């Protein structure tokens, strides 16, 4: 968080107060060319766009690579766990929170419950990424410069998740205040459809509960209530921002240099999984499906660029209007519920139903054409004959591995979520890579085969918010292997 910005403004304001003899500070700050009041619908598009843009960049640079969905050919620091001051999403995400919290304030002033709910959902989405990445973070005091708090205290990750004003409570509250009969202006994600916002609030709760399922004593009851009460996404319903071909709602990677685009390849782990099933989804995420994938950490520049996850089918420069910024998909929701069923957190009888629905949803999301892209006649043919069918397995642990595999792919390009997911998987198996059929420690990693637990706090926090920073740093100092509530 750029605290220096607030401090500079305070110093400038003090200087003006002493030097201005004829005009007040209020008069100096008046701008006749700008409105005094800003309406929520003016702020809302920026809140959505900025948050999704930061997460899309994070997916491309960190999330997909750390989770071995893709692999770097240049600057392989993320792949080999050589994490220092980078990766860093701190400033980008906290900057997005300024408008998100302003949106909530404006909505409350107008008595617009739907705008307030959207603001809370977007804030929760952003704060979840921050705490999942760093652990303890500024939360309730984070965006409080207007009230003179330039040195926000940090709050514990457990409190951020489960406190009275925590993420799970806030998302639940947002769902309760939504009026589905009313629309909102400025909604570039769901075009004002408040039922979809309610579904997103519940889907994000599913994600967070499963992320913290090893720490929550009431994970089962929380999930069961959501499943019973809903609503949740159905197939074809996703929280994914459709970008346009022109600024400002343009795909954030559109202007990236071609060399940087080519520096991210399809990961060999994902390529192996897809080839195992002769899976037509390979054509949706590889520019050249027959070229193979690149091992994470390898110096060899081999394999297919991740082309069409940025290209003609889904993303990329030739068709930026087709690009999507993924917040959360129906596929991820369903596969999380399949995992929950496998673990007995919800009805075990629903395990394969959710699993199959999640996989089918990825086919829908990537618009897989069975006639053009595969030897299978349709999804049912693929599911029953490719070897992906969960019913072929009898042992719960084997079914769990299969569910995890498909859940892993479902988070492709969903911000940093692929990394958070793999971190949880490894934590649940005591760091034993051998428990997974689709993961292995990357070649040449410099962290003793251990996936880092967290990002390092930015140096600006130590210099500008030192006292609170020191109180927040885990025992042993600020390092990538520090534990946090989610993995302890």
List the main descriptive attributes of the protein structure presented here:
single chain; 488 residues; mainly alpha; Serine Threonine Protein Phosphatase 5, Tetratricopeptide repeat; two-stranded antiparallel ribbon; 20 helices; 4% strand; globular; disordered N terminus; lipoprotein; TPR-like_helical_dom_sf
Radius of gyration: 23 Å
What is the end-to-end distance? 27 Å
CATH topology: Serine Threonine Protein Phosphatase 5, Tetratricopeptide repeat
Low-confidence stretches: 1-28, 300-318
Number of domains: 1
Residue share in β-strands: under 5%
**Quantity of strands, as a count:** 6
Largest sheet: 2 strands, antiparallel
Named at the architecture level, the CATH assignment is: Alpha Horseshoe
Highest-level CATH class = Mainly Alpha
What characteristic shape results from the CA principal axes? Answer: globular
| Structural class label | mainly alpha
Q: DSSP helix count?
A: 20
Mean pLDDT: 87
Word description of this protein:
With 488 residues, the chain is mainly α. It has a single domain, classed as Serine Threonine Protein Phosphatase 5, Tetratricopeptide repeat (Alpha Horseshoe), CATH 1.25.40. The chain is 48% helix and 4% strand. It contains 20 helices and 6 strands. The protein has a two-stranded antiparallel sheet with strand order 1-5. Strands 2-3 form a two-stranded antiparallel ribbon. It is globular. The two termini are 27 Å apart. The model is unreliable at 1-28 and 300-318 (pLDDT under 50).
């Amino acid at each position: 968080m750029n605290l220096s910005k607030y401090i500079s403004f305070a110093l400038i304001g003090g200087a003006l107060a002493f030097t201005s003899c004829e005009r007040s500070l209020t008069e100096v700050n008046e701008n006749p060319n700008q409105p005094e009041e800003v309406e929520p619908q003016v702020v809302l598009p920026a809140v959505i766009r900025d948050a999704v843009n930061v997460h899309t960049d994070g997916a491309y640079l960190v999330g997909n690579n750390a989770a071995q969905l893709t692999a770097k050919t240049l600057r392989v620091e993320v792949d080999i766990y050589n994490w220092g001051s980078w990766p860093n999403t701190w400033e980008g995400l906290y900057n997005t929170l300024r408008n998100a919290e302003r949106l909530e304030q404006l909505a409350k002033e107008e008595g617009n419950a739907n705008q307030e709910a959207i603001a809370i959902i977007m804030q929760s989405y952003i704060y979840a990424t921050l705490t999942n990445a760093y652990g303890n973070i500024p939360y309730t005091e984070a965006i409080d410069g207007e009230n003179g708090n330039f040195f926000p205290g940090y709050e514990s990750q457990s409190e951020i998740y489960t406190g009275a004003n925590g993420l799970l409570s806030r998302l639940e509250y947002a769902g309760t205040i939504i009026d589905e009969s009313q629309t909102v202006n400025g909604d570039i994600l769901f075009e004002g459809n408040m039922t979809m916002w309610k579904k997103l609030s519940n889907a994000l709760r599913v994600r967070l509960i499963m992320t913290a399922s090893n720490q929550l004593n009431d994970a089962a009851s929380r999930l069961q209530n959501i499943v019973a009460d809903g609503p949740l996404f159905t197939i074809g319903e996703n929280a994914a921002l459709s970008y346009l071909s022109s600024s400002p709602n343009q795909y954030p990677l559109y202007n990236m240099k071609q060399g940087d685009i080519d520096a991210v390849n399809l990961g060999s782990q994902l390529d192996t999984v897809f080839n195992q099933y002769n899976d037509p989804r390979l054509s949706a995420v590889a520019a050249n499906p027959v070229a193979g994938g690149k091992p994470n950490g390898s110096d060899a520049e081999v394999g297919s660029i991740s082309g069409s996850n940025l290209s003609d089918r889904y993303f990329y420069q030739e068709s930026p209007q087709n690009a999507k910024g993924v917040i959360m998909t129906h596929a991820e929701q369903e596969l999380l519920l399949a995992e929950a069923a496998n673990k007995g957190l919800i009805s075990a009888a629903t395990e394969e139903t959710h699993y199959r629905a999640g996989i089918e949803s990825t086919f829908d999301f990537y618009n897989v054409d069975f006639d053009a892209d595969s030897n299978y006649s349709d999804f049912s043919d693929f599911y029953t004959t490719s070897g992906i069918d969960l019913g072929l397995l009898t042992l719960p642990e084997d079914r769990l591995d299969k569910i995890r595999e498909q859940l892993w792919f479902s988070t492709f390009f969903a911000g940093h979520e692929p990394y958070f997911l793999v971190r949880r998987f490894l934590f649940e198996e005591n760091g034993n890579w051998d428990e997974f059929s689709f993961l292995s420690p990357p070649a040449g990693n410099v962290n003793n085969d251990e996936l880092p637990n967290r990002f390092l706090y930015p140096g600006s926090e130590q210099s500008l918010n030192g006292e609170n920073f020191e109180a927040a740093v885990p025992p042993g100092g600020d390092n990538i292997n520090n534990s946090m509530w989610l993995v302890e």
